[in-house]
Amino acid sequence: MKKIILIAVAFTLLLSACGAPAAEMVSITQNGIEISQAWVRAASMKSEMGAETMPAHGAVSGAFMLIKNSNAEADLLLKASSDAAEMVQIHETTMQAGVMSMAEVPGITIPTGSAVELKPGSYHIMLIGLKRELKQGETISINLSFQNAGDIGFEIPAQMP
Ligand SMILES: [Cu+2]
Questions:
Q1: Strands 139-146 and 75-81: what pairing?
Q2: Is 124 within 8 Å of 64 (Cβ atoms)?
Q3: Does residue 45 register a pLDDT over 70?
Q4: N or C: which end of the chain has fewer CB within 10 A?
Q5: Tell me, what's the pLDDT at 66?
């Protein structure tokens, strides 16, 4: 039986309802996997230059978090999904010969007794083709699928980087 512990979700929603920045981050633990410090980059539906034309893939954003594994075995983050975007991929940003690029990866290993941080310039969850603007303080639903721990769904607040 899957056990879900949600901390600070109600507090975060309360804050965003008042228009204040969602300073409190969600922490969720399920089947030995803990997800904390989760946030998604606030994003406009316009391109960064304010132009009315959008790139072919639409507006994009990235989601970041700390994933901790307290199980006796390593786990693997296999898939991410969200109804806030047309497509969601697991990406890694790398620097090669001074050029920053990012690419989809088949998964992220979370070693036993350890944590992996998804952060700008490293691993991240890529949201491609946003269905709406992500304003600071708003939240979106995201679901992560792990090989051992199964599906973990939670709300993630939009923040300016
Ligand atoms: Cu990316």
A1: antiparallel
A2: yes
A3: yes
A4: N
A5: 97
Q: How far is the CA of 104 from the centre of ligand 1 (A)?
A: 7
CA of 95 to the centre of ligand 1 (A): 13
pLDDT, one tens digit per residue, over 129-158 is: 999 999 999 999 999 999 999 999 999 999
Q: Which CATH architecture has domain 5-159?
A: Sandwich (2.60)
Return the pLDDT at 13.
41
Domain ranges of the chain: 5-159
Buried b (16+ CB within 10 A) or exposed e, 130-150: beeebeebbbbebebbbeebe
- Measured in Å, residue 100 CA sits from the centre of ligand 1 at 11
